[in-house]
Amino acid sequence: MTQNVSSVPSAVPSSVPSAVPTEVSPEARAGLGARPSSASAGTPSAGRLIGVDLARGLAVLGMYSAHVGPDVTVGGPVGFLLETARGRSSALFAVLAGFSLVLITGRPHPRTGRAGRQAVVRIVIRAVVLMALGYALTALGTGVDVILSFYGLLFLTILPLHRLRARTLALIAAAEALVLPQVLYALRQSMAEGNWADAVIAGDPLARITGTDGMVELLFTGEYPVLTWMPFLLAGMAVARLDLTGSGVRSRLALTGGALALLGYGGSWLALRLVPHALSAVAHATGSESASSAWWSDTVGEPEGHTPAAWLLVAAPHSQTTFSVLGNTGIALAVLAVCLTVAGRMPRLTRLARPVSVVGMTALTAYVLHIVALWFFTDVWEVPAIEDDSLSALPVLLAFIVAATLLAALWTRRFRRGPLEYVLHVATRPARRVP
Q1: Which of 161, 182, 156 lies closest to 171, judged by CA?
Q2: Burial degree of 1 (CB within 10 A; 0-12, 13-18, 19+)
Q3: What are phi and psi of 157, to 5 degrees?
Q4: Cα(330)–Cα(256) distance, integer angstroms
Q5: What is the helix (H) or strand (E) element at residue 244, kind and residue range?
Q6: What is the pLDDT of residues 56-110, one digit of tens each?
Q7: Alpha-carbon distance 161 to 180, whole Å?
Q8: If you write DSSP's letter for every residue of 136-156 in order, what string do you get?
Q9: CB atoms < 10 A from the CB of 88, how many?
Q10: DSSP letter at 19?
Q11: 48 in Cβ contact with 21 (< 8 Å)
């Protein structure tokens, strides 16, 4: 997850996936151990994918900690918790995005015929709306790297693969994780040495409309480049194809996540110490005294100017390397497995975790409102604690969390969808006219 807005000009978007759709087939609900949520009189009850909502809620709170909370340099238990959320929350969002795409297009089997075409159009409409909303939030100038625009393009990019089986999706995700970070590194190096990217930006209508670098930013230079974030969504799609009712499947999912996390972070730790001069090259490129933490922490910073090849050995959450993708995917899969197990086997703990799961049910609304709140408190009211790196920002973070959970709990007692989730649902209604 990216850093506090006070410490750097960008922070996690942390993309936020739209809420898990309620238009889920009975088979999909059964496969996830979903149970109906409470609804008010007159409001039809809906099956909620509680485990997915719980995971998404954790990702929202992790995003809040990156944007609102103290800087991780405060140290201690608070600093450690803040650091574990950085980058890994946005990766969890991306995995859940792929999961949601499969839910919309059909789970456990893809919809076919007219229903399949309508589902594809719904995804396309959602993607366009999310891209527009992302650029609107970016225009507020909060310093948060809004993920929604990247998120929309990611949906469009992986949509052609939505009919593939779990094993095929997993293999493609693994291949992309191994290859695409190296491709992105080479492309970024070529941008530094030539001006081809400037020529593309000059002819890009999206760049002219939004006042950004347009597709070049979304694909290559942004905080969440599509080129290296596709594996997260594909991993989520693969998981959604599984029968998650069995504890054995969830256990294997957790073990797979742990193995990927060990391979990513542990592999980076070993590589940085075994490859001659790797740590010193990273330290020199970033101007950081904490290069030894580059195997797991964003505190290493970003390369200033030329990026050495040794950077490919780093696993910091936003380093866009193979080690980073593997490690973050592993953490996301493990968290999802735990949340699904809690929802399916531990009803008492599920009830205790409801404040988090209801935030996940209204994730898009919670994400957008927290950015609007940041803009209001920093640009309108100019509240000093919002831009504080110290522990003085901790009460502000807790206030954001309490406000989000209370509002989400009150809203979901009466309505099936969050406010913006409902707007997104209405926006996709034209898909019903697809023949």
Answers
A1: 161
A2: buried
A3: -70, -40
A4: 7
A5: none
A6: 999 999 999 988 888 887 878 888 888 999 889 999 999 999 999 999 999 888 9
A7: 17
A8: HHHTT--S----HHHHHHHHH
A9: 25
A10: P
A11: no
DSSP summary character for residue 293: G
Please report where in the chains the tokens 């699904």 appear, as a residue.
340
User: What percent of the chain shows pLDDT beyond 90?
Assistant: 71
A 10 A CB-CB count for 80 gives: 11
- Pair 317, 259: CB distance under 8 Å: no
3-state helix, strand, coil in the chain (%, to 5): 70, 0, 30
* Region of residue 75 (phi > 0: left; psi between -120 and 50: alpha; otherwise: beta): left
User: What is d(CA 64, CA 1) in angstroms, rounded to the nearest whole number?
Assistant: 10
Would you say how long the chain is, in residues?
435
> Of 330, 344, 411, 305, which Cα lies nearest the Cα of 39?
411
Cα 200 to Cα 207: distance, rounded to the nearest angstrom: 9
Task: Provide the β-strand partners of residue 48.
Answer: 35
Helix (H, G, I), strand (E, B) or coil at 47: strand
| C-alpha dihedral, 265 to 314 to 223 to 74, nearest 10° | 70
Structure tokens at 54: 């719980």
SS3 of residue 206 by DSSP:
helix
User: Burial letters for 6-36: b for 16+ Cβ neighbours within 10 Å, e otherwise?
Assistant: bbeebbbbbbbbbbbbbebbeebbebbbbee
Question: How many angstroms separate the Cα of 269 from the Cα of each of 293, 295, 316?
Answer: 8, 5, 11
Contacts of 143 (CB under 8 A, 6+ apart): 5, 8, 9, 10, 11
- Which residues pair with residue 47 across a beta bridge? 36
Contact call for residues 17 and 93 (beta carbons, < 8 A): yes
CA distance 294 to 23: 42
Distance CA 72, CA 298 (A): 10
The pTM (predicted TM-score) of the whole model is 0.88
> For residue 172, what are its two tokens?
């493609």
Identify the DSSP state of 17.
P
Digit-coded pLDDT (tens) for 103-155? 999 988 899 999 999 999 999 999 999 999 999 999 999 989 999 999 999 99
What per-residue string of b and e applies to 293-304 under the rule 16 or more CB within 10 Å gives b? bbbbbbbbbbbe
